[in-house]
Amino acid sequence: MKLPELKIGEKIAKIPIIQGGMAIRLSTAKLAAAVASQGGIGLIAASGLSDEELRYEIRLARSLTKGIVGINIMVAARKFSQIVKTAIDEGIDLVVAGAGFSRDMFGLGKESGTPIVPIVSSVKLAKISQRLGASAIVVEGKEAGGHLGTDTSVRDLIPDIRKAVDIPVVAAGGVLTGQDVVDLIKMGANGVQMGSRFAASEESNAAPALKEFYLKAQPEDIVVIHSPVGLPGRAVRNPFAERILKGNVPPKQCDNCLKECAHNFCIIRALIRAEQGDVETGLVFTGEYISRIKEILSVKEIFRRLTAEVAAIS
């Protein structure tokens, strides 16, 4: 099979693969640029970054690739609008937004001509997104890592959402192989978003200890916790996940980073600890099928294998 191109706004990705924007600081300029250079769309995870850090990452990515680079940002972040404005000011190619839904972001995109791509998990939100001016939507199923908006498989969501909207539909959740890509495109998706496979890549900004932890994960290690954001989140079982599954781990200090926070634990600090390699007291977000990843590969090799697998499918 020959993969179709993915057009979002005026940008055309030769390979219809978006790299998930994994926070905090897993998806930085190096990873986003590597994916963009292979013909996909690379995302910088903007959640948890200051304006100065985000500007630096966008400029660094621009110096490393001529490909398509966007940001991923949590709508739940208190500085959501400011982060989006900063990215647009830096000439970002697109904005992908999840962990909530914002009508305001479409206005920001319209003013600048920047494609806005919300992450949705229902026909209703897909239709609303199109009506408000979304350039595309990412449809995320239960298989995804991090914050979850549904308990329905992406393979069950795609057909109905494809019928409901005319804009590009990108499937996310549990995508690891060329066969997964082909299956979802045949179901009506215009492209796919992949997170876990790129989290476990050489260019991922995850510490070596975290990457090794990914490789050790077994299916029974995957748990769903309640995030302070107000959504369930999929993570790998470790001592910290065990603690928050049993009860609250109230933060000793609060950075006031979320619009609304349950304060059952500090998600920003927990994710940062994991990114830095603390797999005991950090929160390790992951997709449902992380156990299927057996080695750390370069982004170039990931794309080579995916495209070869796709080409072998009739």
UniProtKB/TrEMBL annotation:
Nitronate monooxygenase that uses molecular oxygen to catalyze the oxidative denitrification of alkyl nitronates. Acts on propionate 3-nitronate (P3N), the presumed physiological substrate. Probably functions in the detoxification of P3N, a metabolic poison produced by plants and fungi as a defense mechanism. Keywords: Flavoprotein, FMN, Monooxygenase, Oxidoreductase. The keyword Oxidoreductase applies. PROSITE patterns: DHODEHASE_2 (PS00912). It comes from Selenomonas sputigena. The keyword Oxidoreductase applies. This is Probable nitronate monooxygenase. One of its GO terms (molecular function) is monooxygenase activity. InterPro entries: Aldolase_TIM, Dihydroorotate_DH_CS, NMO.
